[in-house]
Design brief:
The chain has 408 residues and is of the alpha/beta class. It has two domains: 176 residues, Rossmann fold (3-Layer(aba) Sandwich); 201 residues, Rossmann fold, CATH 3.40.50.10300. Helix content is 38%, strand content 23%. The chain has 14 helices and 19 strands. The strands form five sheets. Strands 12-11-8-13-16-17-18-19 form an eight-stranded mixed β-sheet, sandwiched between helices. A five-stranded parallel β-sheet has the order 2-1-3-4-5, with helices on both faces. Strands 6-7 form a two-stranded antiparallel ribbon. A hairpin with a 5-residue loop joins β9 and β10. α1 crosses α9, α5 crosses α8 and α10 crosses α14. The protein is elongated, with a radius of gyration of 24 Å. The relative contact order is 0.10. Bound molecules: cytidine-5'-triphosphate. Cytidine-5'-triphosphate (CTP) binds next to α12, β16 and α13.
């Protein structure tokens, strides 16, 4: 297996050395391509010493026929990885600009491409960068979303290069999927071929024809997951309680109202699903005898008798076969411990812990922890729910891969 590792000019460039080592340890041959700015952060000698090979830094390096070399390299690699990928190289790839070796290699290679962006959070969120990333994703590039954290510029925010282990795992998973997987993937996104079932929004439990019990869920998190999964090539079914949101492009939406309706809709799609993300805030209780007619106040003080709804997620956990099951835990105290309890108790593959004491309902951003059964924990600082959704799906892909099933 041979991979070209593009290293572009940003402070995270030193981490490319660890990416390269991680790939080498797994038996992958790595050809490093440094951009001019990348070489200012990490000298070519560092990579040359570790690979025992020349590092490409210039399209027109004397002594080597490099204008041919980029074609030869383009044909011989199984994957082009760019880590870190700056806003500049992302822009060049998106627009087909070929003014150095790396951007020329991108245009010339039939191999799948994986980008691990790293930049200041204002740059990462800029509409120009977002549009370029979207364009590349639509074209089939895999993107390992950056994380939130302390940035080199001293600011806190998203834009920090994803962990080296995450990048290496994604590359290895894609290589394991082989040329067939990669070919099917190209132009379709890294979730191509997967059926993803998402639930979102609140449920509504009727008291009488006019009143009901519900909760503050806006549905934004679940809709963001459905939108991201569809954009990345999955076939997506979104089972949604009542929300004010439009169905994302390319998503089949089933509208439901009560927990019982959500249960029916989810069960009807469960067998066909590869990945299930249960972001809905399902009512735990419903009135045991909803009134057929409007309840009049004349009867004086009343107590409302409630009964438990079915715990849909627990049922799915019980019946799980090949499905990868993701639950959400909205908590106001002991957030991580309660989430871990749900992870275990409901037989989940991941749980997203959400501290709702700080009022995330209806917000466009969320700070969450993604917890896995092996004790791993990914902390995502406050960031747009769209970014949380992408990071969650990255984690799903990596962990499905580790479970020994076709990862991508
Ligand atoms: N869930 C579900 N069906 C229910 C209740 C919850 O599928 N009847 C799912 C939600 O979609 C979410 C997760 O379970 O993914 C949330 O866990 P849940 O058990 O609802 O938490 P709480 O109800 O808050 O449980 P507890 O009161 O024990 O904290």
């Amino acid at each position: 297996m041979k991979v070209a590792l593009g290293v572009t000019g940003c402070i995270a460039a030193y981490k490319a050395v660890e990416v390269m080592r991680g790939l080498q340890k797994a038996g992958v041959q790595v050809e490093v391509v440094l951009t001019r700015a990348g070489a200012r952060f990490v000298p070519p000698l560092t990579f040359e010493s570790l690979t025992g090979r020349n590092v490409v830094t210039d399209m027109f390096q004397t002594g080597r026929n490099l204008d041919i070399h980029h074609i030869a390299l383009a044909q011989s690699i199984q994957m082009l990885v760019v880590a870190p990928a700056t806003a500049n190289i992302i822009g060049k790839f998106a627009h087909g600009i070929a003014d150095d070796f790396l951007s020329t290699l991108y245009l010339a290679t039939p191999a799948p491409v994986l980008l691990a962006p790293a930049m200041n959070s204002a740059m990462w969120r800029h509409p120009a960068v977002r549009a370029n990333v979207e364009a590349l994703r639509r074209r089939g590039c895999k993107v390992v979303a950056p994380e939130a954290g302390m940035l080199a510029c001293g600011m806190e925010g998203d834009g920090r290069l994803a962990p080296v282990e995450t990048i290496v795992a994604r590359v290895l998973a894609a290589l394991r999927a082989g040329p067939a997987g990669a070919a099917a993937d190209k132009g379709a996104g890294d979730l191509a071929g997967l059926s993803v079932l998402v639930t979102a929004g609140p449920t509504v439990e009727d008291i009488d024809p006019i009143r009901f019990i519900s909760n503050r869920s806006s549905g934004k998190m679940g809709y963001a997951v459905a939108a991201a999964a569809a954009r990345r090539g999955a076939q997506v079914c979104l089972v949604s309680g009542p929300t004010a949101l439009d169905a994302p492009d390319g998503v089949e939406r089933i509208d439901v109202r009560s927990a019982a309706e959500m249960l029916d809709a989810v069960l009807s799609r469960y067998d066909a699903a590869d990945v299930v993300v249960k972001a809905a805030a399902v009512a735990d209780y419903r009135p045991s005898a909803p009134a057929g007619q409007k309840i009049k106040k004349a009867g004086g003080v009343r107590a409302l008798e409630l009964e438990r709804t079915e715990d849909i997620l627990a049922l799915l956990g019980n019946r799980k076969k090949r499905q990868f099951l993701v639950g959400f835990a909205a908590e106001t105290e002991n957030v991580l411990a309660s989430a871990r309890e749900k992870l275990r108790g409901k037989n989940l593959d991941l749980v997203v812990a959400n501290d709702v004491s700080r009022g995330v309902f209806g917000e466009d951003a969320a700070a969450v922890h993604i917890l896995a059964p092996d004790g791993a924990e990914v902390a995502l600082e406050a960031q747009p729910k769209a970014a949380v959704a992408d990071r969650l799906l990255d984690e799903v892909l990596i962990r499905r891969g580790r479970r020994g099933e076709a990862p991508e």
